[in-house]
Amino acid sequence: MKISSLAAPVALATALAVSVTACGSTDDPKAGASGKVTVWIMKDSVTDDFLTRFRTDFDATHQGTTLDIQIQEWDGIGEKVTAALASNDAPDVIEVGNTQIAQYAASGGVRDLSDKVADLNGADWLPGLAEPGRIDGKQYGIPWYAANRVVIYHKDLFAQAGITAPPKTRAEWLTVTAKLNKGSTQGIYLPGQNWYALAGFIWEDGGDLAVRDGDTWKGALDTPQALAGMDFYRQLQALGKGPKDSDEAKPPQADVFAKGDVAQIIAVPGGAKIVEEANPALKGKLGFFPIPGTTADKPGAVFTGGSDLIVPEASAHPDAAYEVVKALAGEKWQTEMAKAMSYVPNRTSLARVIQDDEGTAAMAAGAAQGRATPNSPQWAAVEATNPIKQYMTAVLTGTDPARAAKDASESITKTLGS
Predict the structure, then answer these.
(1) Cα distance between residue 207 and residue 202, in whole Å
(2) Residues 98-120 pLDDT 10s
(3) What is the largest CA-CA distance in the chain?
(4) What does the buried/exposed string (b/e) look like for 189-223 if buried means 16 or more CB atoms within 10 Å of the residue's CB?
């Protein structure tokens, strides 16, 4: 998943001064594990410094191999990757959004890395990155990094309301938010179409956006579990003045929060930097906690965005490509990246490396309960028209939830079957 689609920057990365050349490797395809290995990395995923250090280390520890790291723009990347996978001149490693893998795997041009899972400590991977990379029991995508939403809160408003600790359960969250929602203060700013937040609520209640039925997919917003998730969203959204017919980008929720009269928003931790830039008086006054779950023993389910790494079938250097994947997904460079970028590492056991950062630690706690969108090659088409947003607005403006959910589910089913 493109990180910018999480509605706020996760990292303040710079463009990388790395040469962009032709599509794929140009050296002898018989070179095996040596030669020039072409790696596509998405713009702003990591900093110039991180990639420079990684490339220097990799070249030094893999004699005869030289990394050609090429930076790719998000706009139009789907068509470019699809074309590369169908060609005889593909790059050796490609960073892809975690929710895009099913689409690419359906083309048949992605290498099955199932036999590498144990070597990569796959049992410890974050589910929200690992599951999208696994299609029909085969592991095509190797988790690289993750990001997800947390609750960013205004510490002063919590203190003024006599709230001394963040809520641990959904029920407590509603109670606390209602207490905050007094006078000129909004308990929470939650626009009506934050469908990623809704997805987490639905998963927490045991539902889903769509489910597989044999060889086909069908919408599942009309199940009792999914309806329960929507009802929780409705209750929470009512404890503020968020618009019912737009998402967190219209208007930018960071700008709304920066006014100082909103107690909470749901966003990635990097959103706090945007708020502080808009209102420097809030610097040091913002805190973070994981989205609460139904019980206090663990956070609630959340949508996990981020990236996986794939190796094309047409890679001229599959052995060297795997070594690149293994290094980037391994403990050393996962730790380096987590510290440099404030990302959640790909393994649950590595959450310890970012415990000193309040926002990232809250994000990592939620990531352990993370999920991704339905693993259908057609899911991107659902997001393009997004009947989920329309469904949410319908419910929040008084339409019967069951009827609205049925209509939205039928729309999803039709799109996934096309």
Answers:
(1) 5
(2) 999 999 999 889 999 999 999 99
(3) 72
(4) bbbbbbbbbbbbbbbbbebbbbeeeeeebbbbbbb
**Cα–Cα nearest to 97, from 308, 276, 370, 401:** 308
Q: Is the pLDDT of residue 19 over 60?
A: no
Residue among 54, 34, 137, 148 at smallest CA distance from 95:
54
- Closest Cα to residue 341, out of 69, 93, 70, 44? 44
- Collect all residues with Cβ–Cβ distance below 8 Å to 79 and sequence separation of at least 6: none
DSSP-derived letter for residue 170 is H
Helices (H) and strands (E) in the chain, counts: 16, 14
Confidence (pTM) = 0.87
The CA distance from 229 to 208, in Å, is 9
Pair 345, 144: CB distance under 8 Å: no
**3-state secondary structure string across 265-299:** EEECCCHHHHHHHHCHHHCCCEEEECCCECCCCCC
Please write the tens of the pLDDT for every residue from 238-251: 999 999 999 999 99
Describe the strand order of the beta sheet including 264-267 as a list of residue ranges: 264-267, 150-154, 286-289
Q: What is the pLDDT of residues 143-180, one digit of tens each?
A: 999 999 999 999 999 999 999 999 999 999 999 999 99
β-strands 142-148, 210-213 pairing: unpaired
Packed helices 224-237 and 387-396: angle between N→C axes, nearest 10 degrees: 60
pLDDT at site 35: 83
Reduced DSSP (H G I as helix, E B as strand, rest coil) percent helix, strand, coil of the chain, to 5: 45, 20, 40
The helix (run of H) or strand (run of E) holding residue 382 is helix 379-385
Q: What does residue 298 show for φ and ψ, rounded to 5 degrees? A: -155, 155
What pLDDT does residue 116 have?
98
Query: What are the CA-CA distances from residue 194 to residues 5, 140, 375, 399 (Å)?
Result: 11, 29, 20, 18
CA neighbor of 151 nearest in space, from 229, 236, 255? 236
Nearest to 84 by CA among 22, 141, 20, 18: 22
- Residue 32 predicted with pLDDT over 70: no
pLDDT > 70 in the chain, percent? 92
Residue 157: phi, psi to the nearest 5? -65, -35
CA separation for the pair 200, 371 (Å, rounded): 8
DSSP state of 110: B
In the numeric block, the tokens 């927490």 are attached to: 204
